[in-house]
Amino acid sequence: VVDATEGIVRQDARIAGFIGGAGRGLIIAFNKWDLVEKDDRTAGEFVRHAEEAIPFARYAPVIHTSALTGQRAARILSLAAEVADQAATRIPTSRVNETILGAVEHRPPSGGRRAGILYATQTAVRPPTFVIFTSDPRAVDHAYRRYLANQLRREYGFAGTPIRIVIRKRR
């Protein structure tokens, strides 16, 4: 819960980091929305502010609420239920492979090394965890893991929940 009159402060970003690191779902709720002067762009500006202040949590839905007036208070619980459902989503291995191998075909890993991504599977939920087998794990850097996670998110949702990507060398 963020004070909409102050915006996201360092402590808010730290807490979001702890939540994501623990693999838990995240919703960014701007409270005191009734005190904010609004026009037709205000809500979008707050979403952009959240994306800039907490760039590692762009997957988190943003809601604007007021505890005082009750505005959208009930929506927070339904949104939390949606995030919990997304965190529990299991994708069949064949579909995971289609998505990952399609993403690799579209944009192969770079970094000077040649890595063949051979196989991918989902190994856990809460948070969704995917293991990707490759010929050279060193060729799959953090930025490429984020790219693969974004492709999974684009295809299957996972709103509000972090995605873990584990890279393993094929035995």
Task: Note down, in words, how this protein is organized.
- A three-stranded parallel β-sheet has the order 1-2-3, covered by helices on one side. The chain has a three-stranded mixed β-sheet with strand order 4-5-6.
- The chain is 40% helix and 17% strand.
- α4 (93-106) crosses α5.
- It has 171 residues and is of the alpha/beta class.
Indicate the percent of residues in helices. Answer: 25-40%
Class from helix and strand fractions: alpha/beta
| Main sheet: strands, sense, barrel | 3 strands, parallel
Provide a count of the helices: 5
Strands, count: 6
Task: Identify the overall geometry.
Answer: elongated
Give the helix/strand layout.
Elements: E1 2-3, H1 10-21, E2 28-31, H2 42-53, E3 62-64, H3 73-87, H4 93-106, E4 117-124, E5 129-134, H5 142-156, E6 164-169
Parallel strand pairs: 1-2, 2-3, 5-6
Antiparallel strand pairs: 4-5
Helix pairs in contact: 4-5
Briefly characterize the structure.
The chain is 40% helix and 17% strand.
Comma- or semicolon-separated keywords:
three-stranded mixed β-sheet, three-stranded parallel β-sheet, 171 residues, single chain, 6 strands, elongated, alpha/beta
